[in-house]
Amino acid sequence: MVGHQECTTEEDTRDSCPPKFWRQTLTAPAPFADETSCQCQAPHEKLTIAQARLGTPVDRPVRVYADGIFDLFHSGHARALMQAKTLFPNSYLLVGVCSDDLTHKFKGFTVMNEAERYEALRHCRYVDEVIRDAPWTLTPEFLEKHKIDFVAHDDIPYSSAGSDDVYKHIKEAGMFVPTQRTEGISTSDIITRIVRDYDVYARRNLQRGYTAKELNVSFINEKKYRFQNQVDKMKEKVKNVEEKSKEFVNRVEEKSHDLIQKWEEKSREFIGNFLELFGPDGAWKQMFQERSSRMLQALSPKQSPVSSPTRSRSPSRSPSPTFSWLPNKTSPPSSPKAASASISSMSEGDEDEK
Fold this sequence. Notes:
Layout (H helix, E strand, L loop, with lengths): L2 E2 L5 H4 L25 E2 L8 H5 L8 E7 L6 H11 L5 E7 L2 H7 L7 H9 L6 E4 L7 H6 L4 E5 L13 H5 L3 E4 L7 H10 L1 H10 L11 H60 L4 H17 L36 H18 L1
Parallel strand pairs: 3-4, 3-6, 4-5, 6-7
Antiparallel strand pairs: 1-2
Helix pairs in contact: 9-10
């Protein structure tokens, strides 16, 4: 039997696979199954799970298959593929993706079309090969065509296409390996969020330039959404103004606090200098007292001594005579003659004195 020889990483299959078949998972997308040309010369013998977990056979990796819809590819899908890839020491992971026709028939309408879902799987780091238009139910012919050793899927019975569990025959053949579902994330959960918040997303896309026709929105709803967008813009502006106002008030408070602190420091310094100059024992008082004393000394001359020496008089000089003969100032002369006589007598006396 002739099978494919695929390589996952340099460390896993460098010894068993030619260099031209090494695929750098992190630098190139995974190939499609109908485009790969890597052929394996070793026979494809059936393996047990115990043998696969031991890492045998050494001449080829264990081929693990995982399938699904993979609509709105998310972390739950990636974690399931990571588990499928790491089930065995040396694994080659093939991922089957169902087409739009099968999915719409058995499960429902998808958000992403089949080409988008194929491409999303090609760029997952755990995927080595993508099988397009995968069957809804796995047949022996499909398993033989792709040389599949094991099928990986969560262990919850998957009822579809008139069957209680589409993986029942795989489990009975001993080819089923279970993985664990990631709780809290699924495609249905994401769609539920979109439906729940439909108005929010419709308004967002209208604001980003999509037309009402592209969004399948009626004329009335379009006007309503655009009005709500305008209201939200006004609210955002008001919020920004409030935040800027608060920031401005905080800056003013900080600056006023610093200003008051500096003013208090300057006031204390001014008061200290004032008291030092004009206080009870200040320099101004001492200077005023000194100037006052100097002014008093300048205005008040030195007094004469109390006992001054008696002037010496000449012995020939007699004391001044008493002018008893001077007439009384209050009584005028009785006649002009008497007045002239008194004047002449005064002049004679002066001459005699001389």
